[in-house]
Amino acid sequence: MSGGVRARRPASPPPGLPHAAPTSQRFPHPRHDHLDADARKEAASRGLLPSRRTHAPGGLNLAPAEWKLLILVVLLACGVRLFRLSQPNSVVFDEVHFGKFASKYIKSEYFVDVHPPLAKLLITLAAFVFGYDGRFDFKDIAKVYDHVPYVAMRMVPATLGIATVPLAYLTLRAMECRATTALLAALFITFENGLITQSRFILLDSPLIFFTALTTFVWTCFCNEDKHESFTDSWWTWLVLTGMSLGAVVSCKWVGLFTIATVGLGTIRQLWNLLGDLRVSPRLWMRHFVARALCLIVIPVLFYMFMFWLHFLILSNAGDGDGFMSSEFQHTLRGRQMADTFADVAIGSEITIRHVNTQGGYLHSHPHTYPGGSKQQQVTLYPHRDANNDWRILNATHDSETDLEWMEKPLTYINSGMRVKLRHISTDMCLHSHEMRPPVSDVDFQNEVSCYGMPNFPGDANDDWIVEIERGDRRDRESAHRLRTLRTQFRLRHALSGCYLFSHKVKLPEWGFEQQEVTCNKNAVRANSLWFVETSYHPKLPKDAPKVNYRLPGFLSKFLELQQVMWATNAGLTDRHMFDSRPDAWPRLRRGINFWVKDHRQIYLLGNPMIWWLSTAAVFSYIVVRGFLILRAKRGYKDFENTKVVKYDALCGFLFLGWGLHYFPFYLMSRQLFLHHYFPALYFAILLSCGVFDLVTSTLRPRARLYIAGFLLCIAIWNFVYLSPLVYGNRWTRAKCEQAKWLKTWDLAW
Amino acid sequence: MSEASSSRLRQRRAEKAPDLSSAAIEHDDDDYAISPQNPNNRSELEKVLDNEKASMAIVGILTALAIATRFYKINHPDEVVFDEVHFGKFASHYIQRQYYFDVHPPLAKMLFGLAGWFVGFDGKFAFDNIGDNYSEAHVPYVGMRALPAILGSLTVPLVYAIMKECGYSTIVAAFSACIVLFDNGHIAQSRLILLDATLIFFMTMTMYSYIRFRKLRYQDFTPQWWGWLLATGTFMACTWASKVNGILTVFAVGIAVLIDLWDILDVKKNYSMEYFTRHFFARVAGFIVLPITLYLFFFWIHLAILSNSGPGDSFMSPAFQETLKGNELLLNSQDIRYLDTITIKHKDTGVFLHSHPERYPLKYDDGRISSQGQQVTGYGHDDPNNYWQVIPTKALPETGRGRIVRHDDVIQLLHVATDTVLLAHDVASPLMPTNEEFTTVQKDDQTRYNDTLFQLKLVDGHDGEAWKSKSSHFRLIHVKTKVAMWTHPKQLPDWAFKQQEVNGNKNLNDRTAVWFVHQIVADETGEDFKHRVGDQPDKAPKKRNFFKKFAELQLSMLQHNVALTQSHPYASSPINWPFLISGISFWTSNPDQKQIYLIGNLIGWWTSVGALSLYAGITIASIVVRRRGIETLSEPVRNRLWNSVGFFFIFWAVHYFPFFLMGRQLFLHHYLPSHLVSALIAGAMLSFILSETVNYPVSIPGPRMPRSRIRDRTFADLGTRGPVIVGVFAVAMLGLFLYIAPLTYGTPGLDGETVNSKRLLSTWLLHFQAKETGDVAV
Predict the structure, then answer these.
(1) Fewest beta carbons within 10 Å, which of A215, B375, B407, B559?
(2) Which of A101, A198, A87, A84 is nearest to A144 (CA)?
(3) Cα angle at B104 between B745 and B654, to 5 degrees?
């Protein structure tokens, strides 16, 4: 581009005179793009350029030649990303999970995963269209596929991975970088081994990165529009698109929240600037505010909820995710529904009791004893329906003698404060507690709970419990005063020691079949000592006595419950994994992830070292230069009045913000982290490195710039080719593999 | 002030604003508040309270009340309460000079030791359980409890002094002091042998000194300026050395100092770089070098006192332990000689290196193939299969020191029970494809000889260092393939009896690849090896560099602090603290239904929360409004809100928000430092609400003061409303304080109904509550 010559137009208005949009529309300028970004900025700052344009320099108005170039790049990306996509023909890394989830969607079996559903739904859609029946179990890494359209499924991430490449180009163009720079960025993304590897398998990160890139692009376009003129049709279009795309990114993985934070900070900045602009009336400011709130908060939330609506719609059958959900929720799943049960609980009722706060399930006992402590029969929580969950509630108010003749007496309902015994029906023993430490939570304030007694033995005073009704249901007034099935939450206080029947998320060891521990706790956390009766049966109640069932939760309560469960599960992923890593290792590319090994071939997730380290260097150089500029500004230097500084500060500043917000929050997470969590940040870092390239080469002639870009690209491609056997799982010699260990910490398998 | 001087004041004022009367009229109707320039124009009450004598009287009353509330029945209960279990015990360790280990730095605990020593405590009482009786054991516990009580009492006048120094009127300062004075939480915490009172006292001292220092900024590099700078550094170090969370005070001061330096750097202030550099290095000296030196010094004293072996030995490395007199390692550690039979234990997981005749299965579940060699595993229990003999790979002298195994020696390990030799080779281990399998081969299999060679690398070893039982931590490096013998807590499947996998880790420097010799079982002849020791005299403790000891201690303190994650019934999450949702049960006594429950004074705490939200609201509103070009606050008031209250707010936030990031158990008393600071903010907010006047400027003028900074003096005037409101407030505080005092002092005993009535929030978990439902079936 040789815009420099034409920049000196004769008919420029003198500075100070108005030269607003109307004039430029009356005399449309022949071509706006003939100036490169710097020259335009410079001219604008001198007031020489008609700064208002008919259309903002969004990324979509490219020259026809650029479109052709872009098509070529996309074809190249297809070649790189789709090469031998069917290889290996066995399960790779987390395909174990995500393939399995696709099977479950197809079988509509309920499951719980820590990630939102969008990306999984897309994969499922591909599998469904290509006729997958959901029979394959994706059990282990390297299990050979059998009747699974796995190529079609892998096509989803691969396609999105390919689409990321032109997005990088368009984004940088929309940020007013030169075509060479944008091309360099697109090709860096194309040849980034890590991004390629990640996009070739049934994994969620490629969709995530695609949507992150899409959001960045549409947001940039929106910002361009916003600088130009607000509330136009295209302004609204880009804003709504940003909202949709934010919804999509957060529906792939929760990491998308960082993208929301990036856009959110950008929005706050815009609003802050508008606030400081005294020409903007409060009314107009409110319009700006409401428009953004609507599009950037409401739309993403609705999008996200819609995804979950689909999720619930598809998963209508019971499956292995039931155990995570509350009993009301489970009741909505086919195969877990429960028949109506008597509403009243009376002396002699046969009941099952569930724990309120954990999903441990029913109060349970079985004919196995504790290995330590009292060596009496175990009492646990068990999540499934079973005859061993049945208890008979008996009157214990008569001193020392259990009222076994309840059949002959009239019905007595259970009131608050009543003293009862709970007799385990299948073993004929009573729920019992005494001054012994429980097997796992061996602390002073916990007592062991066991089943003790024998048939026809009325039991001792340690079997006595006092029912304390905690709260009833608002719509069933009686339930606050006497025990009603499903509606009353109550605590059971041990009559002699005053401790409360208690359970918490602690599993018994193998001898207890890893069921949940039940204890009697003297300092019980209230929520963990609450119980309710799930089913109740009494022979003396007439058939037409009032019956109850769970109230079906609405979409909103199901949605909120699932969010909580996902959060808890996510926070609970703290086991070490062989290939996990901490965030400080990522920018250095200290170590990769072993995805798949078989027959001396392997797939190892590793970045393109040159691109990777270059991007990290760009980030650090930005920090150093920006810090230096701030110090200079404090000492009175006027750098920030230089248009070049302003332009690149805005560009690199935004990309750095994106990088930082997608990277630093990981330091706060204590869950398992992997190298691929860095990829969204890497995307920003690569764009940033290209922004730095644009700045550094801004004084050079276009040809020289092209040579430098070509040189960088050659190194990148050489790196890619050198390590490509790790990407595609190609045959490799041992010597080459050893040679490829550039860092000692890259633990390639051999 | 005399009439003459006041008229002079008027005249000076007149030069700038010729029409004084019109300015005085504006005072009423405009946003620009003109304070009474003449201190005599203030209300009578304000004038009375502002003079020196009244101020002294108020300080006197506050201090007297503080002492009274903190010392009232300090001898009750005469039992070990809550964490006195720990801190009392540590004090007795100082007196007995036994080494102990704790996550907190030593200063506050040393002070307890000192107090105990001063009142003649012999350190024999063990502080084993909450509820152990002091009187029966003749422990002078009152003397030890007096220390935090004194410091806690002194904190109250300090709060008053901080507010006065910041230019608030006397009555506002008294208000802030009242919030701390009548706070049940502060009182309960400072009557017992706990670290928090010390921490809070030093934190308050730090704030006070920093404010004094900051007020001298126009007289920089004068002796007073240096004095307060160094005082700040000193108290900062004391805070930090009292309790781990004292480090937050260091951060808070650090932030304030950075903001200060940033201002000095500002080109508009017209200071030269050379001037900035001088300030910078002065602060480095006062706020970095001095505190670190003091902190190290406290640890030096700590280690110098604790010279005997004690319960903390096992937390430390062998090299550290050998510096303690009477340490087991020091006494029992012995040189290992070739052909000795030993047991080897993994440092982190505590399992023995074990082998048994069973073999690895040919094929694992995931399809990989093994060597089918004999299994080598980690096993937790003592067993003859843990016995290994050290085989030399070089010629040995007949007798003497040449037979001792040393650092860097290449050895073989013979499994005694199966007569096979330990081996590692390039076969993937059962659980980890990246790591090498460990197995054994027949002793005489010469073809595999090279695979059985291991090099002994002692941790921090030097050439020729002897390999010792118990005290030498070592890595075992396979010579041929360069892997380190390693084990991890993952169990092998049933075919290996669920024992732990042992494999070769390619990361030779993995922190967890460290082993030690647990025991020498027998020597070459199979005889009792003890004769080697003979009857040597007791070994003298070794010397070790203080900095090495300090670094090790500091590191393991941090690690243990992070590891304190087990749940506690009275632990609470930080979000609940400012609202006083729940307290901590410190102590109960069943026979007479007495209890100590740590809970604050509801009025004081909620006032503070209100003040904090008011401050946040005012700040945000004023930023937004200023952005629209509207000025609502006069300069003195805005300055006060930004600089003085802003400083308090930094302290509050820095002492509060980091707890949200901590995974360890957290308790209400972690909020007490923040609560104290929020009382200061509450005072500032009261002053803001009552009047738009402040005492301004508060900084002491000096040569550095630029002409542009010379401001007209303004004086605070709260009128009569101020004292009335504060008086009512103080009475209300006192009333509520007395109402829940039985929970704070643990006496008198309360019956169930009374306990219920004292339970102001339903979330407080008090003991001895009466059941709410009256109709308990009999």
Answers:
(1) B559
(2) A87
(3) 85
Contact assignment for A635 to B776 by CB distance below 8 Å: no
Size of interface A-B (CB pairs under 8 A): 53
Residue B571 to residue B573: CA distance in whole angstroms: 7
Of A690, A722, A683, A695, nearest to A709 (Cα)? A690
Interface test with B, best of A597, A600, A669 (most B CBs within 10 A): A597
Distances in whole angstroms, Cα of residue B246 to Cα of each of A346, A412, B6, B658: 58, 61, 47, 12
More confident residue, A744 or B328: A744
Sign of the CA dihedral running B171, B172, B174, B179: positive
The residue behind tokens 């302003």 is A646
Quote the CA–CA distance of B577 and B554 in Å, as a whole number: 29
* pTM for this prediction: 0.80
Q: Within chain B, what is the greatest distance between any pair of CA atoms? A: 113
- Residue A523 Cα, gap to closest chain B Cα (Å): 6
In contact, A421 and A465? CB cutoff 8 Å:
yes
Whether residues B266 and A634 touch (CB distance < 8 A) is answered with yes
Residue A419: its chain B contacts at CB < 8 A? 777
First to last CA, chain A: 51
pLDDT tens digit string along A465-484?
999 888 888 888 888 888 88
In whole angstroms, give the CA distance from residue B255 to residue B261: 10
pLDDT, tens digit, 9 for 90 and up, residues A210-219: 999 999 999 9
Whole-angstrom distance, CA of residue A422 vs CA of residue A462: 11
**Placement of tokens 């020091």 in the chain:** B330
Nearest-by-CA chain A residue for B489: A576
In whole angstroms, what is the distance from residue A328 CA to residue A551 CA? 7
**Which candidate from A415, A525, A635 shows the least CB-CB separation from B267?**
A635
Q: Which residue from A minimizes the CA distance to B276?
A: A635
Closest CA to A589 of A692, A723, A710, A693: A723
Whether residues A418 and B663 touch (CB distance < 8 A) is answered with: no
CA distance B129 to chain A (A): 12
Q: Which of B496, B394, B532 is nearest to B455 (CA)?
A: B394
Chain B residues 498-557 with a CB less than 8 Å from chain A: 506
In the prediction, which pLDDT does B34 show?
44
Note the pLDDT tens digit of each residue in A271-285. Answer: 999 999 888 999 999
What is the ipTM for the molecules in this complex? 0.76
CA B641 remoteness from chain centre: 30
B729 vs chain A: nearest CA distance in angstroms? 35
Q: Is any Cβ of chain A less than 8 angstroms from the Cβ of B775?
A: yes
A202: helix, strand or coil: coil
- Whether residue B366 lies within 8 A of chain A, CB to CB, comes out as yes
* Beta carbons of B569 and A525 less than 8 Å apart: yes
User: Please, what sign has the CA dihedral across residues A412, A414, A418, A423?
Assistant: positive
User: What would the DSSP string read from start to end of B438-481?
Assistant: EEEEETT-GGGGGGG-EEEEETT--TTPBPBTTT-EEEEEETTT
Preceding amide of B361 cis, omega within 30: no
Mutate to test the interface with B, among A523, A600, A639 (most CBs of B within 10 A): A523
CB contact under 8 A, A594 and B265: no
Provide CB contacts within 8 A for B423, sequence distance 6+: B373, B438, B439, B440, B441, B448, B451, B452
Other CB atoms within 10 Å distance of the CB of residue B7: 11
Question: Do A142 and B624 lie within an 8 Å CB cutoff?
Answer: no
Distance CA B105, CA B238 (A): 10
- Coil, strand or helix at A57: coil
Q: At what angle do helices A179-190 and A702-728 cross, to 10 degrees?
A: 10
